Amino acid sequence: MKYLYGPVKSRRLGASLGISLTPYKTCDFDCIYCQLGRTNNLTVERKEYIKVSEIINELRTWLGDNREIAQGLEYITLSGSGEPTLNTGIGELITEIKRLTPLKVAVLTNTSLLVDSEVRRQLLEADLIVPSLDAVTQGLFIKIDRPHPGINIEEIIAGLVALRKEFRGKIWLEVMLLKGINDDIRHIRKLKDIIEKINPDKIQLNSPARTTAESGIYAVGRPKLKKIREILGQEAEIF
Ligand code: SF4
To answer: Which of 39, 86, 140, 188 could be joined to 135 by an S-S link, Cβ 3.0–4.6 Å?
Structure first.
């Protein structure tokens, strides 16, 4: 399989079959914590990096060959080794998946393109969107996510607020917490104010558990994570 991977089991999504919509590390971020290493194609160009018809052919074959496994899946997850919303075919892909199978569709995104109303429109048929938000100030955002020049955290937040108004499915906001970088309580309180505006169904707190793109990136300890969860409120969960 070229574009499908898994099924993978995670506490967040249960059993899910992953689909990659871009070539390896085609992304508009170069996060210091990325498990996949450095971004080798830092781009904001949207195009059909991988043809929807090729992905659908592969999925159709997989579903035909794996009927029993497919019955145990929670989601088909659009994610992979780059930013899935860079692929202009993402809306068509979600529609085609829904024609093929009753399985729910989740989209994992770094949130950068949600400011674009066309990108938000293309995601409307998904069941779940898991957008990430690691910082709420431009300086910290650049330090952690090392975005393509011109990407602005204010626009990302505006995109999330707009998504909440337009999207009828679930939104689980992911926050990657890095020791000594974005786990300062003052930053967490600012984050809380922004999250209240976004109003996600859940907040998922994460901290690096595997190799990161840069060395010297450490996970936040459990006691601090619990304190952060208390500040962020009932919807926050630690993963
Ligand atoms: S957005 Fe995701 S794929 Fe892109 S660099 Fe960050 S962690 Fe890696």
So the answer is: 140
The residue nearest atom 6 of ligand 1, judged by CA position, is 31
Is residue 208 in a domain?
no
Using the mean position of ligand 1's atoms as its centre, give its distance from the Cα of residue 28 in Å. 8
Report the domain count for the chain.
1
Range of the domain at 85: 4-170
**Spatial distance between the Cα atoms of 208 and 238, rounded to a whole number of angstroms:** 12
Closest CA to 157 of 206, 208, 118, 196: 196
Q: Is residue 205 part of a domain?
A: no
Give the count of alpha carbons within 13 A of 150, CB side only. 7
- In a domain, residue 54? The reply is yes
pLDDT in tens, 27-39: 999 999 999 999 9
| pLDDT computed for residue 18 by the predictor | 97
Residue 207 domain-assigned? no
Nearest-CA residue for ligand 1 atom 8 is 34
pLDDT one-digit tens code per residue, 116-126: 999 999 999 99
**Which residue lies with its CA nearest to atom 7 of ligand 1?**
34
pTM over 0.85? The answer is yes
- Measured from the Cβ of residue 9, the count of other Cβ atoms closer than 10 Å reads 11
